[in-house]
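Lab meeting prep.
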Amino acid sequence: NSDFSIVTPRVRAQVEAARPAANAALSERVAYALWLDQLELADEARKYWMALAAERPEDSQLQARARK
């Protein structure tokens, strides 16, 4: 069982405007991924969690988020 929804153009614009640069600080990318989670944009958030976990393999919290 899975849910599927399409975000509104307004939310899409907010997400795109808030997206951190590729070279943004780790904390900025974590904050963005958390915000995506709050918006229930799990697929988009997962991309960030996986990238962050790959960057910091010793961080158990990032590893756990990437596995969700």
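Slide two material, second protein:
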Amino acid sequence: MRYFALINPDNTVVQVNPIEDKHLLNSDGQYTESKGIEYLQKFYKQYDYSSGFRWLETKKDDSIRNTFAGIGMIYINESDCFISLKPYSSWYLRQSDDGHYYWSPPTDPPDDDNFYYWDEDLFQSDTEVANAGWILSTEE
């Protein structure tokens, strides 16, 4: 069983479908992603594939395209990855040493033993301050 995500023209995942392996084999009996795409396009004819809808394989073990796709996630063409929505406008895409992508804030939190949380409005109001955007979390 393999899984394919339907991506809309805005690069948002709108559907994730399992497909039995028998629908993914070429004439030589070898798996190909393109056979899965072909099968899904025939089955789901209601989507206008010429306008940007497309199917891409996703794996539960995160071994391709960064992570297992879920409805509402986005697909980033340049990085060939699925990822959650960008949490804040100032955050940017980074790649970890193991090759996975994640959203990262533009500044690091202060380097101490306290817990901080991100405040986008604070960051946007004063981007020149070191550790801009981070607010110390206080327990009550």
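Talking points for slide two:
The CA atoms of residues 107 and 131 lie 5 Å apart.
The chain has a mean pLDDT of 93.
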